[in-house]
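Re: duplicated header lines in exported structure tokens

Our pipeline writes sequence and tokens for each protein into one text file. With two proteins the header for the second block appears twice in some exports. Here is an export where it did not happen, for reference. First protein block:
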Amino acid sequence: MYPSEIMTILILFHMSHYRDFKNFYLKHIWQYHHRDFSTLLSYTRFISVAPSVLVPLCSYLTQLKGKPTGIAFIDSTSLSVCHNIRIPRHKVFAGIAQRGKNSMGWFYGFKLHLVVNHQGEILALKVTAGNVDDREPVRELTTELMGSLYGDKGYLSQELADDLAKSGVTFITKKRRNMKACMQAEWDKIMLKKRFIIETINGQLKLISQIEHSRHRSIRGFMLTVLGGLIAYCLKLKKPSLEVFYSEDAVPMMA
């Protein structure tokens, strides 16, 4: 099979209603699309050659990234690779995955760090071990960013905000309750409340694009799952978005 055909099947899975790839391949692709792929491989053979398209998938995902609009949101989400009770027996990601903690509790696996614009398009992303601080990859993720970047309390850091300001990025985060009140533009207060857009995107990536599950048998399989799910999301015609327009004075406003 051509690499493009392998990529197509992998991405189609993440756009389907199937919850595991084997059933999708045998009950959907093999039965209904056998003629569309003249050299369709057996399931076992397909699984063995699928990792060969990791680099092309990365390249394709890069091409699908959105463009900065001056309004961006940053967040991270956990990618658990096994149930907590099985952590001591887990071997597939031993030495790679790590224990992490989010608002839902402890998990074992990785973190997906995302930066999106107000149109729901992915601008930058990075996968790290589960124990990496959310603030650590921010500088790397914002190298091509401009305008305002909104994050939650987990990104609070005056040093980080000062560094980003030097490159033209205004980093705005929520304040903790025990912190002194500070002046904040009304627009920024509104945008901080609109952070649900990136939380919605993370939810769609997990529930619809299926980038998280506990059945991985190799690190390459994990990478194929994440890449396929991200590409499937990028190809969606309708993404979570905010209606923002600009006045004659170039002042952003909500519809």
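Second protein block, exported in the same file:
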Amino acid sequence: MDRSVRLIHLQSLFYLNPRGYRVAELAEKCGVDRRTINRDLADLQDEPFRLPLILDQGWTWRLMEGHRFALPPLYLSLQEGAALYLAARLLDRVSDEPNPYVRRALAALAGALPAGVASPTLTLAGSRLADEDSPFARVFATITLGWAISRKVRIRYYTAGRTELRETELSPYCLEPSSPGYATYVIGFASHAAEVRTFKLERIAEATLLNEGFSVPPGFDALRLLGSAWGVMYGEGTVQVVLRFTPQVARRVAETVWHGSQVLEECADGGCLFKVRVAHTLEMKPWIRGWGPECEVLAPEELRKEIGEELKAAAGRYAA
């Protein structure tokens, strides 16, 4: 590996193992000689990494206790910075829980973007009160660190009904935001189920970083796993959903790619048929309801029946 990649790799190794490494161990892991590693260790303690390394007992290099994981500087174009700002702003606006780290990221972007962009960014960054010591912020910080350095996390979480707390050891494979649920989810191997599970961060009451590491299975592919999900609910099989939209909203429907599998077909009356294949229809239901009478479920029959009964119940309340 080249020097820049090796330095980032060394940084990650120290976060993965708080006990540290001897120079010979690092040389073996990186495939270079000890002299090169000694130069790399000196470089890691200077800009831009500023890694607080300690030589323990004369032969083991380790991180100073309490040090936070920091990323090396990023060099972004104006367009890339604006794209990150928009993504962070969207997450800040729609998340169930205010996330102080999103606001801090927005503030950091504001300091780098031109004045015409930075001023409103700073204002927007403080638009939602968020405390780094809140339960959600602590959970987010712990899960993110476990994800970054491949360490298991013990979590205590509420079930969907929020009636009881359960505990499991989680290997966080990836984090994924979900627009249908306005929340952030962690996907990983859960010890209690002995399989990959999805947990909503907002339902996790406590998270504790463990010393035990983990490896993501070679066959795990988050993009493929979520490819059939409308949000984050994935599965082995898929079901085809067919919706008919009226001419009044067909153009609006066609403006957006709502799902990777979607197929649009124009109807003679100016409306359109919308077809997708998803693992579960539950996450689609709020989106379907949002179109009101402009959307009709044609398939599957079970979903058509559910939405129809809900609309009848709603109409009954208005008629009362």
